[in-house]
Amino acid sequence: MPNKIAVVGAGIGGLTTAIQLQNKGYDVTIYEKNDKVGGKMNQLKIDGFKFDMGPTIVMMPDIYRQPFVDTGVNPDDYFTMQRVDPFMKVQIDD
């Protein structure tokens, strides 16, 4: 029987940890206080409008892709990232 592990929180960190532990053969149970997973990677919908609850800019996309790759899954099957160029424009009033 595999070792049992509890992961508290189903945000990006908890989900990544659970995936990697399960991939190593552990019996993982995730406990989440909210009614959906994702933590700060969620979306609020009000009157047909959508508001991102977390990051809208991903500066290091490989970090998000790596847990999928580590478990033999193609991240492109689950999400799409789009490069924005220029990344940002800073204007300082003189």
Automatic annotation (TrEMBL):
It comes from the Bacteria. It holds the Pfam family NAD_binding_8. InterPro entries: FAD/NAD-bd_sf. PANTHER family: PHYTOENE DESATURASE. This is FAD-dependent oxidoreductase.
